[in-house]
Give the backbone structure.
Amino acid sequence: MKFKEESARESSKLEGTIRKLANGSKLNRMGSKHAVEFEEANQKI
């Protein structure tokens, strides 16, 4: 149960980060790098 709550909090944090990266076109180069890292992390889960 505790693990479920933790992972939910983490995923919402990641969603917020992705949204920020998507909104910040100035950070586009950095954002795409983070997006790739996020995809790789997602595949490990």
Q: What stands out?
A: The chain is about 85% helix and 0% strand. Residues 2-44 form one domain. The chain has one domain: 2-44. Residues 31 and 37 are 10 Å apart (CA to CA).
